[in-house]
Design the sequence.
């Protein structure tokens, strides 16, 4: 009976797929959680298994919207769910440590939104807990996993543009937001640096594969006391530089330009989720490569984590914890220059 | 006799034209003097009358190349030439003060290449001498006079992009030059800041119509001790910024981007001699205006000076001496941060 035969094949295939599927639990139902959940549909080996919010009503609505089988009205219930392989911590950054620790101590792998914590000290605690509980932990620097970013790293490691001498990247959004909005609210870890600047600092860290020797910066603080415009110069050995600026009050182009001794690479139009790379070598015509994908692109991060978990890797080698710790240390140094400290860190 | 009548008309017309023509004397026969002399051909009311070099042979060759009626083997002879209205000082910047003073004291109007002097102290002496001798003096910031720059200033003064909050401009050239080349040679006032950075500092001064309140910078010095890569953040009131970088060792795009509360303007592809302006207002399609001209564009500067002289203006209102002095003061502050002082200043 060929019909039965086919259904058996399907059953076996489904069982294999299920084995390889990674079950995600989302902790927090805000804006970024929505985007992540929507992108999970494009993931090759990830499936949304449960969502959670402090409000059961909010969790239910989120679950309906994203077709999640389970909705929890508490984070504790989510991390106790035996069906969950990995928890995506999508709460505001002042809560990243607490919620990551909650999941880690429950034995769950954790993907924690960026910045991984408010400061390096907090992340160090999270890393220790992950080591102690023998679980996977990664900062949600989703930029790292885009096909264009993978290609960019390849060009850089092949020294296609020679030795990198200068990097320029910016990220400016005119939020037009009030004092209670996340971006302005000190209680929610507001400020352009933590929200937008983390992309710049992490990108510079990726390009130079190290932290700067010298950091100079200028800041403007808005009415709530957090930074709304930030300019930074990072200097590396032999005077190579990164010029980085972020703002929550003015729309600044989000292109990145990397200049080396042999040419330049442009990543854009949005460097942190690039769809175009242009390689311009001296005395050559520019070569532009286009990349396209469905959704916002969180699926590349989700699929990377699925592979790490399937291979039982203790952490990601593309976004290692040591690097997240280094970039947070750089962010700490910058904020120290401005005397910007949050009450909840 | 209509033929005679015509020739008389031509004679009268030529005589009027001659009266309005400004006679240029070029002091120094280097690279920039060559470009200036070539562009004078496109000037509406300027004529190359004489050239001078310390080497008579060099002056002769230059005069032949640019069809100058007179060639002098000394600068003293040039400034004594009664036929010369204005002297273009085109020697390296450590000689700007000395050569400008020579011409000023001979009663000549002076266009002095940028930077107008090595430091503000030197320029102050030049300004005093110009006032005492009642002659016109201007820094050769030729960028100011391009049709695109005029249009850009118009848009800025009309607040088309609202209040300016951020400016980004860069100027990087890979000179591939030895230690004796002008750009590296301390005796010739070498270094990226004085040679390329002056364009950035002057451009920021034009955009913000003031000097920065806070300057932070990072520098790399090459083998000869002068700066070969320089990054600067200027901060103005209410945290508006200029991010500027220049380099003599890496090719960095020379585009300028000006961001305001209502939109942005891009000046490029070479901001200091722009041929394209793009106005991008929020929620509008970008509007690009193209400008084209003959030669390199020094003719716009020459024609501006001709008009100033014809109107007997004591100085230019588009590139006033007070502003040149302010930008040099900013340059002095930057160099002080790096402890870079030239023996001949």
Sequence:
């Amino acid at each position: 009976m060929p019909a039965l035969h086919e259904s058996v094949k399907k059953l076996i295939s489904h069982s294999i797929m299920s084995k390889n599927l990674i079950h995600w639990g989302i902790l927090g139902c805000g804006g970024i959680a929505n985007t992540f959940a929507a992108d999970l549909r494009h993931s090759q080996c990830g499936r949304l298994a449960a969502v959670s919010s402090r409000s059961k009503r909010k969790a239910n609505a989120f679950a309906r919207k994203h077709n999640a089988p389970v909705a929890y009205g508490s984070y504790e219930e989510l991390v106790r769910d035996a069906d969950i392989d990995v928890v995506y911590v999508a709460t505001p950054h002042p809560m990243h440590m607490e919620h990551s620790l909650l999941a880690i101590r429950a034995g769950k792998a954790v993907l924690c939104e960026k910045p991984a914590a408010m400061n390096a000290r907090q992340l160090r605690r999270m890393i220790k807990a992950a080591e102690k509980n023998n679980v996977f932990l990664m900062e949600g620097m989703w930029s790292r996993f885009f096909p264009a970013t993978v290609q960019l790293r390849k060009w850089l490691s092949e020294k296609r543009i020679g030795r990198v001498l200068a990097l320029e990247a910016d990220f400016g959004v005119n939020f037009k937001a009030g004092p209670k909005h996340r971006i302005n609210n000190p209680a929610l870890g507001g400020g352009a640096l933590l929200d937008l600047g983390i992309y710049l600092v992490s990108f510079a860290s990726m390009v130079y594969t190290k932290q700067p020797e010298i950091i100079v910066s200028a800041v403007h603080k808005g009415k709530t006391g957090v930074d709304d415009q930030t300019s930074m110069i990072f200097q590396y050995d032999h005077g190579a530089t990164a010029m980085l600026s972020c703002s929550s009050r003015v729309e600044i182009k989000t292109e990145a330009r990397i200049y080396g001794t042999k040419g330049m690479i442009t990543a854009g139009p949005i460097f942190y989720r690039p769809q175009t790379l242009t390689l311009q070598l001296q005395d050559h015509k520019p070569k532009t490569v286009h990349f396209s994908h469905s959704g916002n692109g969180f699926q590349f991060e989700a699929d990377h984590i699925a592979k790490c978990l399937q291979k039982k890797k203790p952490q990601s080698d593309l976004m290692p914890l040591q690097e997240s710790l280094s970039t947070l240390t750089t962010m700490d140094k910058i904020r120290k220059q401005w005397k910007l400290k949050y009450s909840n860190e």
